[in-house]
Amino acid sequence: MATTIIDWVEPGGVGGVNTVGEFITPPVTSSERGITPAIGTGLPFPPPYQPTPTPFAHSPGETLSGVFDEEVIFANLPTPPGPAAPPAVLLNADGFLCPGYETDLYGRIHLIPLNAVLGNVLAETVLLVEVWNAFFTPQTLDSITPTGNTGIVLVQPVPPGAPPAVFPETSSFIYTFTIQEDGPAAINATFTFDFTVDAPVLTITGTRVVTLAFCPERPIKEVLEWKTDVLEVFDGSEFRIRDRKLPRQQFALEYLITDERSQAVFRNNVTGQAGRSFAIPVWTFGRPLLADLSPGDQVIQVDTTNADFRDSTADDAESVILWRSEFDFEIAQVGIGGLSANQIVLERPLEQAHTVLGTEVLPIQIMLGKDPIKWAMTQNNVMRARVEWLSEAVADLAEIDANLTIFDGLPVLTGFNFIDTTVEESVARKYDLFDTKSGVFQAIFGRTVVEFASRKGFETVTAQDSFDLRKLLYALRGKQRSFWFPTFRNDFLLQNASITSGALTFSSEPVDYERFIAQQEPFASFMILLNDGTQFFRRITGVTFDETGGPSGEPTEIVSFTPSLGQTVNAADVRFISYLIRSRFGSDKITLNHARRDNLSVRVPVIGVKQ
Q1: Which of 152, 315, 323, 324 makes the best surface tag, with the fewest CB within 10 Å?
Q2: pLDDT on residue 87
Q3: What does the DSSP 8-state code read for residue 516?
Q4: CA–CA distance from 165 to each of 7, 71, 100, 234 (Å)?
Q5: Contacts of 414 (CB under 8 A, 6+ apart)
């Protein structure tokens, strides 16, 4: 068996070389201190090393015997006198440079930001770019080379001044880029900062959005469209899966344009920008100024409540339009955190004067005109144009009005059901009819209970009611979420002279509820509406038919409910007792008709559900 002579290694040292020229690595700092990793990893099991081993040594020519493939014995020998062991020598080792923080950051020119994505530019926009000399020596900016910079103005700081300009070591300066409203629709500009030692390139991208400020005719039709997958079970239960939280928001606007110049401008705008985005005032949320404005003012006094005005954030800049006519308006950017109930603080001062009587303030949304955009000329040279605008930035306005009654965790649509001429209702068993056309036919039921369908009508006349309705529609998300829907009619006919405070039953004229319905959902709850507007919502716990159990010995259906009303209700005070049907909207597509400002007219199909 071969014998290997191990040179002495100082614990905590840097290693040494054995007699055959093999490099010995430093000892590990663990419970095996003093034993080199090259040796320790070769042992079949951990030997009982001493916590602090004594250094090993050998005499020249001495053989150490022991157990291992290469026979080695570790003996506690005295340290020989003489000079220290020679330093470690690496044989045939390759090296490489390991990058660090300093080499990543210093020794180059930095542009902050390097890529500026402006998004949709509605008004004049200012971009600040920091240029940093991260060298430890002065560097010279020889030139700034622009491309695609039409409509972008660069203002250079002083110092260092126009190129050639000297940047002291580790110094930085702010360069100002003003992106003007006028210019190409697509912003795709570069600015190369040519230093002697480096040439970083600033990239500016974005879109100049054309503002189409023609006032449309009324009524204005707005469509909100969600997307819900409804999976129906045989027992009538449903699983409703939301595919889209926020709706698609679409405005169908009709323009009546009489002036020939206006007609030409409109046609050229929609023709040249077809398929691109436009900035469109949201005409349904126009608000008057509360105070006159002068050039240089940076605060607009205006009531922003109950309207879709939006605050700017670090990621999204929002704008408003101060509108006088289709050619006389000013776009203003809302400052970050600048929106409050009675004023808007702007990002930059206004350039024009505006008066209370002459100017209207409206929020702006970025919209896409859906294909095709159509117009027609009448015999008297009037142009009628129609555009369906699809909003690209829909806000999440979902909120349940705090004044809306909540029953069993769901809102109750207690407002009266507005109708035009009639309200249609239907029930459907959803059966399949098998008919050979030559013999008997057979109906195969699609569900065990019928599906109830009706329609809910909303009419609002104030800004607050209209905006509360909008927030409710956003919260219910088309078909997805359920609510309680009173039928607003006499589904039970009260026979009692009164329902006492602690009573848990009332008597109704026989309406065959016990015979045919028997607490089947969604007909298992009711609403009592009093003449003074008081409402009670209760669940039916049972119904029995009594041939002679009425107040005067007539037939009756005794309806049990829980909990008690908590007050005595006289029959003369009851307007009706109607079903309270758990429901959802029957369509993901809801149309809002704006006949006048702050007025909404909405009709939505309603479907009864079990859950």
Answers
A1: 315
A2: 61
A3: I
A4: 64, 73, 30, 79
A5: 404, 405, 486, 535
How far apart CA 111 and CA 201 sit, in angstroms, is 8
Q: What is the pLDDT of residue 82?
A: 61
Q: Do 377 and 428 lie in a common domain?
A: no
How far is residue 172's CA from residue 133's CA, in Å, rounded to a whole number? 6
**What pLDDT does 81 receive?**
62
CA dist 80 and 75 (Å) reads 14
CA dihedral 86, 87, 91, 96 (to 10 degrees): -170
Q: Report pLDDT digits (tens) over 250-259.
A: 999 999 999 9
Pairing of strands 535-546, 556-562: antiparallel
* CB-based contacts of 280, cutoff 8 Å, min separation 6: 211, 212, 251, 364, 365, 366, 367, 389
Q: What per-residue confidence (pLDDT) applies to 23?
A: 40
Structure tokens, 172:
């930085």
Domain boundary among 391, 418, 441: 391
Question: Does residue 123 share a domain with residue 44?
Answer: no
**Are 480 and 242 within 8 A, CB to CB?**
yes
By the 8 A CB rule, do 236 and 447 touch? yes
Whether residue 213 lies inside any domain: the answer is no
Domain that includes residue 239, residue range: 220-391
Nearest-angstrom CA–CA distance, 287 and 299: 15
* Alpha helices (runs of H) in 52-131, residue ranges in sequence order: 101-105
> Which residues face 220 on adjacent strands?
594
Look over the chain and give the mean of its residue pLDDT values, rounded to a whole number: 85
Rounded distance between C-alpha atoms, residue 159 and residue 445, angstroms: 84
Place of tokens 């110092």: 159
Between CA 39 and CA 27 the distance in angstroms is 10
290 and 354 co-located in one domain: yes
pTM for this entry: 0.74
Distance CA 293, CA 317 (A): 22
Number of domains in the chain: 4
Q: Kindly report the number of other CB atoms within 10 A of residue 401's CB atom.
A: 15
The pair of three-digit structure tokens given for residue 597, joined into one six-digit string: 């400002």
Tokens matching residue 440: 């008997």
| Alpha carbon distance 312, 529 (integer Å) | 45
For residue 344, the 8-state DSSP code is E
pLDDT at 69: 38
The tokens for 285 are 């949320």
Same domain, 510 and 548: yes
The series of mean pLDDT values per 10 residues for the chain, 611 residues long, is 37 41 40 37 42 43 40 48 61 67 83 90 89 95 95 93 94 95 86 96 91 94 96 88 94 96 95 90 96 96 96 88 94 93 94 95 95 93 96 92 90 88 85 78 78 94 94 96 95 95 96 92 95 96 92 93 96 96 96 92 95 72
Task: Give the residue from 416, 438, 283, 449 showing the smallest Cα distance to 361.
Answer: 283
Residue 304 within a domain: yes
Pairing mode of beta strands 451-460, 600-608: antiparallel
Based on the domain organization, do 590 and 540 belong to the same domain?
Answer: yes
Let me know if residue 270 belongs to a domain: yes
Are 466 and 478 a contacting pair, CB within 8 Å? no
**Phi then psi for 396, rounded to 5 degrees?**
-85, 100
Cα atoms found within 13 Å of the Cα of residue 224, Cβ hemisphere only: 28
Q: How far apart are CA 609 and CA 589, in angstroms?
A: 19
